[in-house]
Amino acid sequence: MKKKSSRRTFIKQSSLSVGGIMIVPRDILGGVGFTAANDRINLAAVGAGGKGHSDIRDAAGFNSLTNSSKENVVALCDVSSKEAKRSFEMFPKAARYQDYREMFAEMGDKIDAVTISTPDHMHAPPAMMAMKAGKHVYVQKPLTHDVYEARMLTEAANKYDIVSQMGNQGSSGDGVRIITEWIEADAIGEVKEVHCWTNRPVWEQGMKRPEGSISVPDYLNWDLWLGTAPKRPYHNGYQPFNWRGWWDFGTGALGDMACHVMDPAVRALKLKYPSAVQAFAPFKVVNWSRVDSLDSPPPASMVYYEFPERDGLPPVKLTWYDGGMMPPRPEELADDEPMGNNDGGVLFVGSKGKLMCDCYGANPRLLPKSRDEQFEAPTPTITRVKEKNHQRNWIAAIRGEAEASSDFDYAGPFSEIVLMGNLAIRSLYTQEEVSNNGKKHMAYTGVGRKLRWDGENMKILNYDPANQFVKREYHGGHTL
């Protein structure tokens, strides 16, 4: 399908070259949706605490020495005044909100672009609202909480012709580009096997929902924090950090880190929808019966992905590991050499050799070390990000000075891959009524299943109970 023309493409195609000088119509450069290089962009943040603080700080180009920014921060939205305090102090002139819907209603015409750095379950609604209003969006990883949301945001970014970016910052680093160039240069031959691992979770998982309730702190709007999730009493075990370990709010270790760790594999091998996914995770048994938490991801997991042939590349099997799980140590790796780094890593297994990198695609090297030392890297063919800063890369893309490293055309399908793993993990805990010798009982029918995935139609073909995890029900009056 032919990709629709963007405004920046139109500018290039509409330009005239006279005597080596490029002439661009002034009304095109000054039109709606285009920001000239010398104009300051008006930014807003939905989620200004935690990671949201560094996202809006870096997007604005804040300089702590001069206490000034390259862009204007005009609005900050956060449900917790305590978590947002640093951002409030850094940008004292910005209007303050708790509800993003009120922010867009009151300041929509004053906002050019928005960073969204909320818990995972609240990424999609404000992102969609912003795009429908013509705002450029930077959304933390994973792009969304479920597969359906990721597809909708990807389509919306194209429909509304905005500049999008997902917050997997390794995408703006040199490592993912170097790895792609090496693989395209046949440095390790055909790649049919990849292993990705992380040291996460560094928060508790596999928990039961806490009983009772605690008084909601004065600084927190609990109903707005719950957002699309079902109502429940407040408990400090849910926030500000541990939301990652609850299915209603987060996406576990896989959702938290796979958009960082898998990035070089997805990019270099041009991966899109998997054809099959299978998950493995521990479960607890008491008195011969399983005692599972349906509220929280397991403390560890492995996910096997199968990807079909694409663009002349062979099928690929990719395995994900978290919670202390790791792939077998490659024989080519010396005993005193680390596997990846403390955060995780990737191992590419090719027909001619192996390639390993750290988390975020950093420090790529061939195995064994002697081969890496003799290797002559190919001439770079992929443009490097000038500032090595992911948020500023997004700003440069808004100005038409660069391509966004992880726009939704890439990040949307990538997030679907990641979230398919969570769908497979959650399917391990689904039960159905079965009959055995004429007696009916509930059984865990998802264990050991390889789920066949129709990516285009977002549907599991061979186990219908898993389809409940493709799209979830919204609560709290939020919509896409």
TrEMBL record:
Domain annotation Gfo/Idh/MocA-like oxidoreductase bacterial type C-terminal: ranges: 214-266
Protein name per the record: Dehydrogenase
One function term, GO molecular function aspect: nucleotide binding
Source species, domain of life: Bacteria
Domain Gfo/Idh/MocA-like oxidoreductase N-terminal: 43-164
InterPro entries documented for this protein: Gfo/Idh/MocA-like_OxRdtase_N (IPR000683), Gfo/Idh/MocA_oxidrdct_glycsds (IPR050463), Gfo/Idh/MocA_OxRdtase_bact_C (IPR043906), NAD(P)-bd_dom_sf (IPR036291)
A Pfam family the protein falls into: GFO_IDH_MocA_C2
